[in-house]
## 1
Amino acid sequence: MGIFQPVYDAIANLSRDAWGFMVGLLIIVAMLGGLYYTLQGGAGMAFGGSKMAAYAIVGIVGLVVLVLIAFLMLPELGTLLQNSTPKAPF
Amino acid sequence: MTAAGEILLGIFRQAWALIAGLLVLIAILGGLAQVFKMTGGVLLGSNVWVSQAVAGTLGVILIALVGFLSIPAIAQAAVIGGVTTGCGPISEIGQLAGMLIGGIGSLRMLKGTFTAVVSVSLGGSGGVSNALIEIAETIFGMLFITVAAPVAAAFFGAC
């Protein structure tokens, strides 16, 4: 990138920090969501609410699958984009 | 004159690499933001959020990919049909202008794609239409110069 390399490095560092922050935040939100579903399922089982328990189990599994897909899919998509970055056509 | 043009094109190439790199960074971060929105939508039971986030994630990647694949092809097509008329200084000026217009046009199209990716990452849609307008303007300008430069060369009495 020549003369623009310092600019890119600075923005890339900021982006790395932002990525780490958002991933951490996502994990926290997912854990809180899992706790919420656990409480919902526990309450449902406690007073015989089978529908609540079923929703809670599906919710926890869906949350885990969603976060896993995000963590597995996004880096792959990022690699795909980086590999298809074109050279200057002029 | 060719040397000066090469220096300018070198700077443009570096700017191209910078914008392309930033576009990848923004696309990845935008995808993560959409995933965050998707997770929030799942937790709050908001189907609209989830569907918007899925569409947003795919939109970011698609716009970036389409930009990466189409802009070089468009730019090369316009540069190939560029200025070759005339001889002498007029021809050199024409070739320099063609190179610079191709470089600036390509950068402008990439900048438009960058704006579109940023807009989609934030959940907007206005940036995409603006980017398309900018790209269309650039293509029209690049095509226009292929007509205007030979006319100007003939006007100045080039062979």
## 2
Amino acid sequence: MRRRLFALAMTSALTASLVAGAVAAQDPVTLKFWTLQQSDGPVKEAQEAAVRDFEELHNVKVELTTYPYLELQDKLLLAAASDAAPDVLLLDQIWVAQYAGAGYVEPIDDLMAGADIKAEDYFLGAWNSAFVDGKQYGVPFDVGVWAVMYYNKDMFTAAGLDPEKPPTTWEELNAAAAALTNAPDQYGIATWVGGGDAPNCLWDAWTFSGGGEVIDPATNLTGLGEPAGVAALEQYKKSLEYGPEGAVGRDVEDGFALFTSGKAAIMFYGEWGQDTIATRAPDLNYGVALLPVPEGGTSVGCFGGFNLGISSKSQHKDLAWEFLQYSAGVEKQKEITMLTPANRQAATEYLAAKRQYPEMIYQQLDQAKFRPLIPNYPDFAEAQRSILQRALLGDVSPQQALDEGVPGLNEIIAEAQ
Amino acid sequence: MAGRRGSANGVDPAGPRVVVADASAGRHWSKSWSRQLLGYLAVGPVVLLLMALLVYPLLRTFNQSLYDVRPALQKNEFVGLDGFSDLIADPIFWTVFVNSLVWTIAVVGLQFAVGMLGAFVLDRAFPGRWLLRGLAILPWAIPGVVAAMVWRLIYDPQIGTLQIITGPLGIPPLDVLGRPGSALWGVIFAAVWKGFPFWMLIVLAALQSVPKEQVEAAAIDGAGHVGVFRNVMLPSMAPVIRIGVILTSIWTFNYFEMVYVMTKGGPVQSSHIFPTIIYEEAFRKLDFGDSSRFAVISMLLLLVLAIFFVREARKSEAL
């Protein structure tokens, strides 16, 4: 009997401790913030240092957790859906509308009223990426642009091309890529498609550059099936001829490895790739140029980057707002952003100090357009990616893939209205 | 069998006490009642936990499958069974359905075949057997995500091991994971590699239970290798194999990380199985309604397997 009682006591104690653990009280002045690591650079240390300064400044604790991109994407959404999100939300531009629609992120219009922070201090595209249905849901943290062209100058010289005159149009690009291709030892372009949002961005950027729109604001229909979008998809497909087999299964980071390992001469990647090249291939003699455009077009990139928002379930919204202003200020931006600072002044200084071709990058950031700001963007992106993959796999022509896919895209846009 | 069970009861200290209880009812009634209460109290918290962690989410999922729940679009409407009929009309559902069947049958079948071969090899005594037995377990001991990453590299059309082998044979580079026709099969082979050691262990253990004298007797009576295998070994291993098939089928059906890490369900959504689409719908698209409908259908399919499992488990208990 005694033994049974003991067993009962143990079982109950175990159960009780499980339940108690789940509802343990939180320290009242701890601000939670989840961030991410996106390039090979010392950003993590800088963010930790900045957080320590903030802790001293406000006499609070900040719990900083760093994730890789995909983990952050999954964990943050899961946490928000179960009312357990961190106080400060680091939101990719394409997540803002989704979070705003679901009510996971707090509008900051009232807080903005008395604050020093001003929209015009930031890249317009970055600021507006957090503006959904007439409300501002966050401040821009950093920005990136898909894509710029990285090219291997030594390979250009060896192929008889002028390394100081990189191709600027699709025609020049295809000609240069053909001259640079010597399969299977060397390829003209480090082609990639893969499963993430990067291929959408490249298609979008080429569409913007031809004067097209991903969603036409006048009609609320997709512009991807219009001539600029079709031409962009055809060029995407054409570029695969100058890359190694298997582009559809290869994601953008695999493509990056082809470039840094000297297998390919040209790579399209975000403007923040220089740190990673410096770490992986410090001796690579490379240049950075605008993304080549269709004849008569202008190079307009596709915006990427992150905004800072406040969780609607946060118990410390005022403190979180302080943290947002602190992180979005000129001084901190120069140190702690993963990509280029979203604050114009910080960006100018940051690019001058850390990047080759700073003016070109600044110009790209200033002109870039963002991806559709609709709450069901993940649906849109997947449908768009399916069209892209079908066309690139060669089972159907780009035009046919679009003819079959565009109605689906328009349905998704309509659902968001 | 029955005799053995009886004798096992005989040595149970609880046995005689029960008999005595019948003799003097009143006092013992309260005693056995208090013991019963103790029993309920002991299992109570566990049952409550199970209710909270299993039954509640299950009912919630069933309930949610009747709604259109898309928080980002502020949708939370009752749609009843229309949600299911819409889902079944969507081609992606049938892709997932067929993929899940192909995936489960192919992975379990091939794992079984390879594991069985491995077990027969390792059942024979030869020098260095201990080492080979140890090495053969490795794939099973590696975490699924790691194995999936390694197989992505193996299949890489540029630097992958597969191309290093097929290249010199004049076979052009295969983009196994990048084409809709081959992506799922690429993952299937990786999963077979990952899981066959489990089958090898099961069959090895089952082989120990085959009565050696029967094998010898059959051989003396002139049964060939095939005959001995089919008529003597297989029947005595059958119960273990049946349960193994059912269990690994359930695990494989629910196996998420290999497919997700290797293909993310792509390209063109061609390699999704139930667990990956449930995840995508819920945590990428924030469509909890469709996600629940996929989950409910997947659970009904698993229920069929589970019923087989319970029947088999009963059967082997009766042996």
